[in-house]
Every structure is written in C-alpha cells, then in structure tokens.
Design goal:
520 residues; Rossmann fold; 11 strands; 9% strand; elongated; RNA-binding
Length: 520
RNA sequence: GCCCCCAUCGUCUAGUGGCCCAGGACGGGGCCCUCUCAAGGCCCAAACAGCGGUUCGAGUCCGCUUGGGGGCACCA
C-alpha cells in the first residue's frame, strides 16, 4: 500500500472508516503514474506548494507509481540561495518522500534544470528546423516600447511579429555572427486550440489571442514553457498536477507538445489559496499578519510554531478535495481514499482555525511515547533540561490541552522547574480574604503532609472530604493549591500534577504559599 | 482593457436529474460533564448568487447577468 517511505505512525482516528475490500482491489486497477513536483527555488515553501506536492504524492502512492522532485531553476535572476534545501526539508518534514530527486538521484536525472541545458537547446533547434519556432533578435527595450504603444492604443500587449518572417538561412547567419537572440514559438494565427483539464473538462482558446512565447532565453536557458514540457516528456510524466496560474499558458504548452509530436500527459490545474477573507490571494502583508497571529503560510514556520505534519497535511488536503465524512485522516488513509475525480476547481480561502483543530486532533491521537518525543524539543528550546521520566508522565496530562506542540511549555514547563513563584494575588481564592486563603492552605498542608505518599489516589479523597466539611467550593480550595503548587492559575489536573511533582516539593511549595499569604 | 477559470451554510466541502424541505467538518450558540484550562457527549442556528431556459422533475444540464479568482515578461 502507499506511503512506503512514510515516517508516520500507524494509528487510526476514533472516527476511523473501514475500507471495503473491493476498494483495496481497485487499487491495482489504476495504472502506475509518474508525477513530479516541480517547484522553482525562488522563495520559501508555502502552503500552495505543499498541497501540490501532497496531491502528487497521493496520486503516485495510490497507483503504486513514481513521485519525482524536479527543481526548476532556470531563472537565475530570482534564484534564492537555500530555497532548494528548504523545499527538500519541507517535503521530508511532511513525510512526502519522493522516489527520484536532485539529492537522491534516479534513472531520469539530472533533476535540476540548469544541469539539463543541452537537452532544451536540442529540442528548441528541432522546433526551429521544423518551422514551429523562430529566432528573434528584438531587444528588450524595443519590446517594451511596443508594449507601451499597444497599451496606449488599448490593444492587447503581445509580440508584434517582427522576426517571424526572417528566413531561416538569414537568421542562422546572424546567430553564427554572435547576434543576441531568443527562440520564440510560432503560435498558429488561425483556428483554435483545445485542451482538457480533468477538473474542468475541455477548454478552448482562439489562436489569434495567443502570443509567440519565448522558449529559449538569450542566456541559452529555457523558459518554463520549454523546460517543463521537455522534462515532462524526457521523464515520461503521465500526470501533470500544477497550480491554476498555469491555466493561461496552458495552450502554449499543448501547442509545443503537439508541435514536437510528444504524447500529452493528463492535466490538472489546482485552484489557488485565497487569504482568510476570501478576497484575493495571500499577499506579503497577509503573510506577516498570519505570523503575528501565531500562524504562517510557510511550511517550515509551521513546524517551528509547533504544528505537526499530520495536522498540516490533513488541513491542506481538504482544501480542494472533499470527502463525504470522516475527515480526520493520516497520510496513509489519504492515499487509500484519494481520487483525482474528487478534486475541486474553485479557489479556497485559508482558514487557520481549522488548522488548529486538525493539529489538536492529531496530537490527541498520538501515543504517549510518540507525543513525548515530539514535545521534547520544544521544552529544550524553551530552556528546560528534560527528565525523560517526568516527560513521559506529564504527556498524558497535557495531551488534550494542546493545540500546538509549543503549547506544552505553558501547560507543562513548571514540571521541570525546581521552584515556582506564584503571584500573591493569584493565591487568594474567589470570595475569600488572604487570611482565609492562608487557613485553607494550612489545612491542606496538614492533610497532605500526613499522607505516607502523595499520589493522585491517596490525596484526592481526604482533600475532597475537607472541601465537604469546610463548606467551601472545590475550586476555591483546589484553586489555592493549584497556584501554590504549579505557580499558575491554569494547569493540568491538580492531583495528577502533584503526584508528578512529588511529595517533598509539593509540601515545600504549599509552605511557601502559606508564608506569602501570611505576609499580606 | 483582453483571455481563461470558478460559483452549495461565515469557512472547507458532500452532492454526477428524482434517495436533498440539501449531508459532514471548522467556527458560533445552548446544555451536560467538571478542581482551572481543555477534551468529550448531546442539541440548535446557518447555504444551492440572480434571471431565463431544457425536462414529468434541476443544487445537479444549457444560456445570460452578477460576483470572485488567475493571467496578459527573455518569471516560474
């Protein structure tokens, strides 16, 4: 079954669904696909990329196919140092392990486009020889001028065709003479182009609306339109999953492929993610606001914030893909259920509240050992030296209180502190005076100190009895003790916490609280 | 401006002509549980953008309108 490289634990949510046997059988009916996630290293890995990669992964595993990572680094101006590594780290963190890629190699490499330039040059030349493309010697300055002119005249900005009619023999001479040039695709000027996107059906363009797109730049590197098509052909990609920003250049791509006589892959263009308001896509400003809010659209930020791969994956998989019920899923369960027929083409607004929900849900689904291992680094990052024994004991106590792994600090940090320093005001129970609160603390100390051991089981009954006899509210008595022992007003359950902290420290902390209250 | 895409509760979505006075999830409201905070259980409010067709029958098919989105580079 899918997810053969998955790091994810095998667990099933409470709402687990049972996969019918006939569905299992149908897995083998789907021919194995070859899909690629092809990001460009021009910035940080965000949610949109992560979802595209996820769907690629799901389709590959679902069909026992191949998932490839390819780096589209042909834009040297926008290249960002470290971006490729962040992409790789992000995929590994999410558990979307690929079968072929720049760092692990594979039979159809290299997997970085800058290492494949000869291949593109070869196919660009073929396009020119066959009359499907031409050398263009226009300067960027002239083109810019033409564009402005066209806009002024309310015309559509497009290439004006100047070099289209230069005879090939003359063009070759100018190229040989070292004249700077690009290679443009010779788009048909009449008729229409039709192509099929599995999510939307057939789309039709009038060829007269299409432009003579640049395929090979003057630096000898290809544009996306040539590079991606060539690599998809050379790497025998069967299904192209990409963002809907490619829809507008879709006709260029199919025309290039058809001119070269290559087989056409199955296409699907994923909708964009909109900002939480649903008005427009995420901008730099919204990204900054999200971070202020404890959220982020960047994958590796989410990791640092304490989100889990399970939570993030579950969240983004449902933005653009719907399941009838049981929407809590592990990666392996997504593989079992995934189908490209259920993809939704409409844009989806990002909803961080839902991420919080899925993250908390997956945290609650983890075994104690698993969760302890996940929160340990967060305690260490916060400066605590972590005692494994205590860690294992506190984990079940804080599990259902966590939204992010980082929430472990406020809920469990005090377990690793030698002392606590409660605020005096917090030690005073609701409707009680400092003196009365001190009395409650003294009586509690008296009860607790008489116990041979201090455990949840031994401490709760006598304390409950005291509450009963005193006529006080449970939360008045337990509240004072909670603040005395944990140093905070909100904590995991009191008696379980005291058991972990230990008799000696508990008594000491209650004594300190009494002193503090008496000094008021 | 031009081209293309999209349109079910606030949000993510199920729905492939009768099973839908539209189902699930998040969020919201209420109740229960309760030593705080949570978690959990039960319940409630909340949508087929509008208008025309097609059909015995339309959320589901077609057209228009409106709204939203993407793109119009020697960027991906």
């Amino acid at each position: 079954m899918g997810g053969k490289n998955s790091h994810h634990p095998q667990y099933f949510p409470l709402s687990t669904f049972h996969l019918p046997l006939f569905l299992e059988a149908s897995l083998s009916d789907l021919p194995p696909v070859r899909v690629r996630f092809a990001p460009s290293p021009t910035g940080r890995m965000h949610l949109g990329s992560a979802r595209t990669a996820l769907y690629c992964y799901l389709l590959a595993r679902r069909t026992a196919g191949t998932f490839i990572l390819r780096i589209e680094d042909t834009d040297r101006k926008r290249y960002v140092e470290g971006a490729e590594q962040e992409l790789i780290d992000g995929l590994h963190w999410l558990g979307l392990n690929y079968d072929e890629g720049p760092d692990i190699g594979g039979p159809s490499g290299p997997y970085r486009q800058t290492e494949r330039r000869a291949i593109y040059q070869k196919w660009a030349d073929k396009l020119v020889e066959d009359g499907h493309a031409f050398h263009c010697f226009c300067t960027a300055e002239r083109l810019e001028q033409v564009r402005q002119e066209q806009q002024k005249n309310k015309q559509n900005p497009r290439y004006d065709g100047t070099c289209r009619s230069i005879p090939l023999s003359e063009a070759k001479k100018r190229v040989a003479a070292g004249e700077k040039h690009v290679i443009r695709f010779k788009m048909p000027t009449e008729g229409e182009t039709r192509a099929v996107d599995v999510m939307r059906g057939e789309i039709t363009w009038q060829n007269k609306d299409l432009d003579d797109t640049v395929l090979l730049k003057s630096d000898g590197l290809p544009t996306y339109h040539l590079a991606a098509m060539t690599d998809d052909y050379e790497m025998r990609i069967t299904h192209v999953i990409r963002g809907s920003e490619w829809l507008s250049t879709f006709p260029v791509h199919v025309n290039v492929i058809r001119a070269l006589g290559w087989p056409e892959p199955t296409w699907m263009h994923l909708s964009v993610f909109l900002k939480p308001s649903g008005k427009g896509k995420m901008s730099k400003r919204e990204a900054a606001d999200a971070i202020k809010d404890g959220h982020s659209i960047f994958v590796m930020d989410l990791k640092d914030l304490g989100y889990t791969p399970e939570g993030v994956l579950n969240w983004i998989v449902l933005m653009g893909w719907g399941v009838a019920e049981d929407d809590v899923m592990t990666l392996d369960q997504m593989v079992e259920r995934f189908s490209i027929n259920n993809l939704n083409p409409s844009p989806a607004a990002i909803n961080f509240t839902k991420l919080d929900h899925f993250n908390g849900t997956h945290i609650r689904l983890m075994s104690t050992e698993e969760l302890a291992g996940r929160i340990k680094p967060f305690f260490e990052r916060a400066g605590y030296s972590v005692d494994e024994g205590i860690l294992l004991k506190l984990t079940p106590l804080i599990r259902e209180r966590l939204v992010t792994l980082d929430d472990s600090i406020p809920f469990g940090g005090f377990f690793f502190q030698p002392t606590v320093s409660p605020a005096a005001a917090d030690l005073i129970a609701k409707d009680l005076t400092p003196a009365q609160s001190a009395e409650v603390a003294r009586r509690s100390l008296d009860i607790l100190s008489k116990l041979p051991d201090l455990s949840h089981a031994s401490a709760e009954p006598p304390m409950r009895q005291y509450v009963e006899e005193s006529g006080l509210q449970p939360n008045q008595v337990f509240g004072i003790l909670r603040v005395a022992v944990t140093g905070q007003k909100v904590s995991p359950p009191l008696f379980e916490s005291m058991e972990i902290i230990g008799r000696e420290k508990v008594l000491e902390r209650v004594q300190n609280a009494i002193k503090l209250l008496e000094s008021l």
